[in-house]
Design a protein that fits this description.
The protein is an alpha/beta fold and about 230 residues long. It has 2 domains: about 10-140, Response regulator (Rossmann fold); about 150-220, Winged helix-like DNA-binding domain superfamily/Winged helix DNA-binding domain (Arc Repressor Mutant, subunit A, Orthogonal Bundle). It is built from 10 helices and 6 strands. It has helices spanning about 15-30, 40-50, 70-75, 95-105, 115-125, 135-150, 165-175, 180-185, 190-205, 210-220; strands at about 10-15, 35-40, 55-60, 85-90, 110, 130-135. Helix 3 runs parallel beside helix 4, helix 7 packs across helix 9 (about 190-205) and helix 8 (about 180-185) crosses helix 9. The protein is globular and about 50 Å long.
Length: about 230
Amino acid sequence: MTAPAPDTRVLLADDHALIRESFCALLEAEPGLRPVGAVGTGTEAVRLARRHRPDVVLMDVRMPDMDGIEATRHICTDPETASVHVLILTTFDLDEYVYAALRAGASGFLVKDSTAAELITAIRVVAAGEALLAPRITRRLIATFARQGHPAGPTSTALPGLTEREREVLTLIARGLSNTEIAEHLYVALGTVKTHVGRLLAKLNARDRAQLVISAYEAGVVTPGT
């Protein structure tokens, strides 16, 4: 008899007690998800992430003592919590928060007006090692790169360690395509795409697809509006 899959363990970090309680109740009612703690500061989030090593930290941005961006950076750069994925959840879907959170290592970004179903899906996606950005967040992120004056177009020296096929896959990832969509676009097997993605993650020292998107835009492999 096959043993049941272990629950996805979630740590909640938000400075509003009512929100923490609501999210805990939501997670407890959802099969396969289990809250392992709820804290109100970034410092506490880092401490409990080290203690419990949850699968996902649901992280607010604006918190006292240490904000969610800095807490994310501590969690994602600490070898003890390297396997922990951070999902940023905030009221403020501002460009600077999106970019800073992703640079800090966050795997996803949702705003608090998302539905309960969207939140549950996001937690499961991030726990599985994928990246998740709400569509409007992706558009804002691209607009941010445009305003900040990142490279105007692809260059032959951008990311020189990549093969042409890897560069092509990276471009499609940055445009928001899933592995299945990339396989269909390139007329290759899904397993082949997964191999390319794995190599990209290793070569670019990226935690997940969100980090790959940032690498693509910073190197000019993909530009806003293309």
